[in-house]
Amino acid sequence: MAKEIESTNGINLISAGTQVKGDVESNSDFRIDGQLNGKMDIKGKVVIGASGQILGDIICQTLEISGHITGNIRAAELVSLKATARMNGEIITRKLAIEPGAIFSGTCRMDSEADAKRKETVQLK
Known about the structure:
With 125 residues, the protein is mainly β. It has one domain (3-124). 10% of the residues lie in helices and 55% in strands. The protein contains one helix and 14 strands; from the N terminus they run ββββββββββββββα. The longest helix has 12 residues, at 113-124. The radius of gyration is 15 Å and the shape is globular. The protein starts with a strand and ends with a helix.
């Protein structure tokens, strides 16, 4: 069962030392410095702090990673892997930035939602 957070202006936080099991949905930005085992569906920006760990998929607008993620990412705008980031999985995004020192093991597809819709239309014909 997903936990829906109705905040529109604030930043939601899972702080260091906190472990959450389950899916998370939110209409505003989200920061994780603790651990999450589940899927995230966030309408805004997601920041994974250096102590943050995610085991699950993430759907968001923008993602900044300093911690560890095992799962697939779909970000509408930008994925940024900082020097301390450890990422294992698939990334689908419009823009990707990887700092020296970051570890990325997986695949990446640079794709915008408009391009994806256009490709689906072409395939249907």
